[in-house]
UniProtKB/TrEMBL annotation:
Keywords, comma-separated and alphabetical: Hydrolase, Metal-binding, Nucleotide metabolism, Zinc
Binding locations of substrate: 18, 20, 177
HAMAP family, per the entry: A_deaminase
Residues where Zn(2+) binds: 16, 18, 204, 296
NCBIfam families attached to this UniProt entry: aden_deam (TIGR01430), PRK09358.1-2 (NF006847)
Protein name listed in UniProt: Adenosine deaminase
Gene3D superfamilies according to UniProt: Metal-dependent hydrolases
Reactions that this protein is recorded to catalyse: 2'-deoxyadenosine + H2O + H(+) = 2'-deoxyinosine + NH4(+); adenosine + H2O + H(+) = inosine + NH4(+)
Record InterPro entries: A_deaminase, A_deaminase_dom, Ado/ade_deaminase, Metal_Hydrolase
Physiological role: Catalyzes the hydrolytic deamination of adenosine and 2-deoxyadenosine.
Biological processes annotated in GO: adenosine catabolic process; hypoxanthine salvage; inosine biosynthetic process; nucleotide metabolic process; purine ribonucleoside monophosphate biosynthetic process
Domain (Adenosine deaminase): residue spans on this chain: 11-347
Length: 355
C-alpha cells in the first residue's frame, strides 16, 4: 500500500483546478473584512467548514453558489495577485509539478478592472508564487486557462483574450457554470474561432448533465478535453462486471484518447458520483480511458492532489505505478507544447516516481 508520505513526495500534474475555488479561508476572511464583503461567518476555520458544508449538497447549482464569496474578494489587482500567488504556493507545497488553473476574467470587473488587467494580475501572482516556491526549493509550472461563463454571452471575447495571451502564460480556454439549459453549442462561434487559431480548449461537460452534453462538447464543438466527463459511464454497460460493454460514444471517447478531467471528491459532492468507492474512475481506468485525477475546487472540497490520490489508493488499492500512470496521462493531456510535456515526463515525473 502506498503511504501518505510517498504520495506527498511524488510529482503531480493538475489539469482541472479553479482559482476561485482554491482561495485560503483566511484570505477570504481578511479581504472581506477590508472590503466590506458580507460573509456567512467571519472566523476563518468556521468559514472553511461553511464552504465544505454548502458544497456538499448533491446539487451543482448549490455548489456554484459558494463562489459568490470567493469571487467577491477577487475584484482588485492586489487581491487577484495575492490569490494567484497563494494558489501557486499551495500547489507547490502539495508537490504539484505542473498545473493548469482556470478562472473567469469576466467575473472580476466590479471594481473597474479590464479583462486584460485581470489576466495580467493573475500572471503577476503566478510569477510571484513560482519565485517563492523556488526560494523554498520547490519547482512548479502554473499556467492559466481562461473560462467563459456558459450562461453569459462573452465567450468569443474571452476566447480572443485567451489567444492574445497564449504566449504569455495562457494555454487554453474553457466554458463553465450550470450545464442544464446552457449547452456548449450556444458558444459555437467561440469554438470555431479557437479552431481557426489552432488554440486549445476544454469544456465542462458530463458532470451535472449526461451524455448529450458530452456528445455536443466533442462532436459539435471539438473539445480537446472533457471537464469532468464522469457521466460517460452512462454509456458503459456494466451489468456483467467481467465484460463491460462500451456504447458508441464511450468507445469514441476512449479510442480517440480524449482526456477526462475527473475530480473525485467534487464529483461526489455534486452528485455526479455516489461515493469515492463507487466513483466511475475505477471502471474507466480499467477500461483504458485517458483518465486524469484533479481537485476542481480545493476550498469547497477541503482537498489537495495528495488527498485525492490517497482517497483513490484507499478505495481501489492503487500503487505507485498506477499513480504514475495517472500523472503521465495528465502530462500527456496538458496544453503545453509536446517537447515541454515530454521533458517534464522524462526529467521530472518518471524519476520522481522511482522511490
Amino acid at each position: 500500500m502506498v503511504t501518505p508520505e510517498e504520495i506527498a513526495r511524488v510529482p503531480k500534474v493538475l489539469l482541472h483546478d479553479h482559482l476561485d475555488g482554491g482561495v485560503r479561508p483566511e484570505t477570504v476572511a481578511d479581504i472581506a473584512e477590508r472590503t466590506g464583503h458580507q460573509l456567512p461567518v467571519d472566523d476563518p476555520a468556521e468559514l472553511g467548514q461553511w464552504f465544505a458544508d454548502a458544497a456538499t449538497s448533491g446539487s451543482l447549482v448549490r455548489y456554484l453558489e459558494t463562489f459568490e464569496h470567493t469571487v467577491g474578494v477577487m475584484q482588485t489587482h492586489d487581491d487577484l495577485v495575492r490569490v494567484a500567488r497563494e494558489c501557486v504556493e499551495d500547489l507547490a507545497d502539495d508537490g504539484v509539478l505542473y498545473a493548469e488553473v482556470r478562472w473567469a476574467p469576466e467575473q472580476h470587473l466590479r471594481e473597474g478592472l479590464t479583462l486584460t488587467d485581470t489576466v495580467d494580475a493573475v500572471r503577476e501572482g503566478f510569477e510571484q508564487g513560482v519565485a517563492e516556491a523556488a526560494r523554498r526549493g520547490k519547482v512548479v509550472h502554473p499556467r492559466q486557462i481562461l473560462t467563459a461563463m456558459r450562461h453569459q454571452a462573452r465567450s468569443l471575447e474571452i476566447a480572443e483574450l485567451a489567444v492574445s495571451y497564449r504566449d504569455r502564460g495562457v494555454v487554453g480556454f474553457d466554458i463553465a457554470g450550470a450545464e442544464a439549459g446552457y449547452p456548449p453549442t450556444r458558444h459555437l462561434d467561440a469554438f470555431e474561432y479557437l479552431h481557426r487559431e489552432n488554440a486549445h480548449f476544454t469544456i465542462h461537460a458530463g458532470e451535472a448533465f449526461g451524455l448529450p452534453s458530452i456528445w455536443q462538447a466533442i462532436q459539435w464543438c471539438g473539445a480537446d478535453r472533457l471537464g469532468h466527463g464522469v457521466r460517460i459511464i452512462d454509456d458503459v454497460d456494466t451489468s456483467d462486471p467481467d465484460s463491460p460493454r462500451l456504447g458508441r460514444l464511450a468507445a469514441y471517447v476512449r479510442d480517440k484518447r480524449i482526456p477526462l478531467e475527473l475530480c473525485p471528491s467534487s464529483n461526489v459532492q455534486t452528485g455526479a458520483a455516489p461515493s469515492i468507492a463507487e466513483h466511475p474512475i475505477g471502471t474507466l481506468a480499467a477500461l483504458g480511458f485517458r483518465v486524469t485525477i484533479n481537485t476542481d475546487n480545493r476550498l469547497m472540497s477541503q482537498t489537495s492532489m495528495s488527498r485525492e490520490m490517497s482517497l483513490l489508493v484507499d478505495a481501489f488499492g492503487y500503487d505507485l505505478d498506477d499513480l504514475r500512470w495517472f500523472t503521465v496521462n495528465a502530462m500527456k493531456s496538458s496544453f503545453l507544447p509536446f517537447d515541454e510535456r515530454l521533458a517534464l515526463i522524462q526529467d521530472a515525473i518518471k524519476p520522481g516516481y522511482a522511490i
